[in-house]
Amino acid sequence: MKIYKITATFPSDERFGLVSQIRRTMASIPTNIAEGAGRETQKEFARFIHIASGSASEVEYQLLLAHELGYISPEEYPSFENDIIEIKRMLYGFAKALRK
Question: Residue 54 sits in which domain range?
Fold first, then answer.
């Protein structure tokens, strides 16, 4: 996973800070989708998709912060930014489909 590879290059003093936050937040996106899929109604499922979307927004900021701190190079950052934007777009579409 790209997130684990890039965060492995962050300074060791960030191991329990930004590295941990980014990894947990990124992992919470599919975790919330899986939890929502196990719920009984589409309305409940949609709620967990919205939670996953919030996590995607969090990781979007955390990656921006890592980039601004110089932990993600200007050459690498656009790929991460595009990935998270696509994830958010997919989550929005999924939530919209569940509301129908």
Answer: 2-99
Contacts 24+ apart (CB under 8 A), 42-51: 42/98, 42/99, 43/98, 45/98, 46/95, 46/98, 46/99, 49/91, 49/94, 49/95, 49/98, 50/95
What pTM does this model have?
A: 0.90
For the chain, what is the domain count?
A: 1
CATH number at residue 79: 1.20.1440.60
Give the pLDDT confidence of 6-39 residue by residue, as tens digits: 999 999 999 999 999 999 999 999 999 999 999 9
